[in-house]
């Protein structure tokens, strides 16, 4: 194996067994002109294109699904081009990370307010393509809420500019077709690299907050009580700046934790808004940090026996599936147990926000889940469990955030992308649109 193969294959998803002979090139352009030239070469050879950022995506989309393809990485397109403090935006190349952007903005008293836990490695091009967000998404929105405009290169080499209102393209036919489809930034959000290569983003920035925050902990007797409390916080639009849930912890790692519980941060003086959602214990800054660390370390620890596996992160519990949280969690657990797995840890962002495929926002709990799996289980069997989970989620009204919607269980978004791809041409991450092929390929990559 060559270094190039390692770079092409490295990704955080469970789909890592790549057939490197089908990667016809791995490229690191520095400019939009270089991207245009690389796409031209792919086009001439009839190859697909897989855009890749930090490889931290969990859906496997940046693998390209083992099709004959070239991979274009944004990792050398990481410059901050313009900062306009007065007008509240920054123009950046797609390979910059939120941490890199904020390191530059901090001396100016400004901040880019999208903070996934992976903000040190995830690129803004990748975050928009998965519409990511962090544990402050409830207050600050997802990536689409913080993106004003993008530039993209399409498969025919045309350059496209997309904002919240529409598109401009140097190919008049494509511009007319996309305008007829009313394409906007909402379509680029969570498009998983299927429309083109994002070469530049205009991101909204705001002053660093001077708000004084207070930490708190709320423990609940059961899952339904947690679901009801979160639903109430959402209805009352409680001013929560950081919200993390520990839903379940296995005996091996629970220690003195008493899940289900919420770790919260809110502006000083607003605790009364939260009092009637559960027994709120105010935390000192050091205790708050300790709780945040416990939550972050939870999935990094291992069971005494067996192997930990992250099968399907980002269960989106909202509306009925949140109010009936006991049923949601227990049915998923029963399904996993029927496959010989034991729950290890469940945790996530709450209250949180994400978008459904028709672009309406959903509010609730984004729950990650780690299980202990039998050592003998094959990759294909693991993939079958994922497919069962997708079906169970549909039945329970659990809609994963876009990053985890794999393989595109959200048919509304998929159909919309298919409509747009008729105008811009396919060839970018095309494997996503052939469900049988995608399932077969992905099953072989676990
Ligand atoms: C430890 C860890 C913590 C995480 N925490 C969070 C979290 O808190 N919140 C959250 O939302 N996610 C989280 N994630 C998931 C992940 O970080 C996000 O999905 C991230 O947005 C992906 O960015 P990336 O640059 O790594 O993209 P990649 O993984 O490289 O690619 C993701 C998708 O974007 C496409 N893409 C990448 N660059 C471009 C481009 N320039 N043009 C067009 N398409 C492109 C790819 O083709 C692929 O479909 C976490 C992941 C890990 C490993």
Topology summary:
Layout: H1 3-9, E1 23-27, H2 32-44, E2 48-52, E3 69-73, E4 80-84, E5 89-92, H3 98-105, E6 110-111, H4 124-130, H5 137-140, E7 147-153, E8 159-163, E9 167-169, H6 172-180, H7 185-188, E10 197-204, E11 206-207, E12 213-219, H8 223-235, E13 242-249, H9 251-254, E14 261-267, H10 272-275, E15 279-283, H11 285-297, E16 307-309, E17 315-318, H12 319-323, H13 325-338, E18 342-355, E19 361-373, H14 379-396, H15 411-424, H16 435-445
Parallel strand pairs: 1-3, 2-3
Antiparallel strand pairs: 4-5, 5-10, 6-11, 7-8, 7-10, 8-9, 12-14, 12-15, 13-14, 13-18, 16-19, 17-19, 18-19
The structure holds flavin-adenine dinucleotide (FAD).
Flavin-adenine dinucleotide is lined by residues 11-12, 50-58, 61-62, 74, 94, 116-118, 122-123, 125-127, 129-130, 132-134, 192-193, 197-198, 403, 429.
Describe the protein's architecture and organization.
Helix content is 33%, strand content 25%. The strands form four sheets. Strands 12, 13, 14, 15, 16, 17, 18 and 19 form an eight-stranded antiparallel beta sheet that branches. The protein has a six-stranded antiparallel beta sheet with strand order 4-5-10-7-8-9. A three-stranded parallel beta sheet has the order 1-3-2, sandwiched between helices. It is globular, with a radius of gyration of 22 Å. The mean pLDDT is 91. With 446 residues, the protein is of the alpha+beta class. The protein has three domains: 79 residues, Uridine Diphospho-n-acetylenolpyruvylglucosamine Reductase, domain 2; 128 residues, 2-Layer Sandwich (Uridine Diphospho-n-acetylenolpyruvylglucosamine Reductase, domain 3); 192 residues, Vanillyl-alcohol Oxidase, Chain A, domain 3, CATH 3.40.462. The structure holds flavin-adenine dinucleotide. The site of flavin-adenine dinucleotide (FAD) has 34 residues, from strand 2, helix 4 and strand 10.
């Amino acid at each position: 194996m060559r270094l190039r193969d390692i770079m092409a294959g490295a990704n955080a998803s469970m789909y890592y067994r790549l057939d490197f002979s089908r990667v016809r090139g791995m490229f690191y352009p520095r400019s939009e002109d270089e991207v245009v030239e690389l796409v031209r070469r792919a086009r001439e050879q009839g190859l697909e294109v897989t855009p890749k950022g930090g490889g931290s995506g969990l859906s496997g989309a940046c693998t390209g699904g083992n099709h004959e393809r070239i991979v274009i990485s944004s990792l050398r397109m990481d410059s901050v081009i313009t900062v306009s403090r007065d007008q509240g935006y920054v123009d950046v190349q797609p390979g910059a990370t939120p941490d890199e952007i904020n390191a530059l903005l901090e001396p100016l008293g400004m901040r880019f307010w999208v903070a996934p836990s992976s903000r040190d490695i995830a690129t803004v091009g990748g975050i928009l393509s998965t519409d990511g967000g962090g544990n402050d998404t409830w207050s600050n929105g997802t990536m689409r809420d913080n993106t004003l405009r993008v530039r993209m290169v399409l498969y025919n080499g045309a350059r496209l500019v997309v904002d919240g209102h529409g598109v401009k393209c140097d190919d008049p036919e494509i511009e007319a077709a996309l305008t007829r489809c009313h394409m906007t930034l909402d379509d680029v959000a969570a498009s998983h690299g299927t429309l083109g290569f994002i070469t530049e983003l205009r991101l909204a920035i705001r002053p660093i907050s001077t708000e004084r925050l207070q930490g708190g902990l709320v423990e609940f007797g059961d899952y339904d009580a947690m679901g009801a409390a979160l639903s109430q916080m959402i209805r009352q639009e409680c001013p929560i700046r950081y919200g993390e849930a520990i839903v379940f912890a296995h005996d091996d790692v629970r220690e003195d934790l008493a899940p289900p519980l919420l770790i919260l941060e809110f502006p000083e003086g607003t605790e009364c808004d939260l009092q009637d959602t559960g027994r709120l214990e105010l935390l000192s800054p050091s205790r708050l940090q300790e709780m945040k660390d416990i939550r972050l370390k939870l999935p990094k620890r291992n069971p005494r026996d067996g192997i930990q596996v992250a099968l399907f992160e980002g269960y989106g519990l909202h509306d009925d599936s949140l109010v009936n949280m006991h049923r949601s969690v227990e049915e998923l657990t029963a399904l996993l147990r029927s496959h010989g797995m034991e729950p290890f840890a469940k945790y996530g962002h709450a209250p949180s926000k994400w978008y459904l495929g028709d672009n309406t926002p959903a509010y609730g709990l984004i729950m990650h889940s780690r299980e202990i799996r039998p050592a003998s289980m094959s990759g294909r069997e693991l993939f079958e469990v994922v497919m069962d989970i997708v079906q169970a989620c549909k039945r329970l009204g659990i809609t994963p955030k876009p990053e985890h919607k794999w393989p595109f269980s959200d048919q509304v978004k998929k159909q919309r992308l298919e409509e747009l791809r008729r105008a811009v041409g396919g060839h970018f991450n095309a494997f996503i649109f052939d469900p049988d092929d995608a399932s077969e390929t992905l099953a072989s990559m676990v």
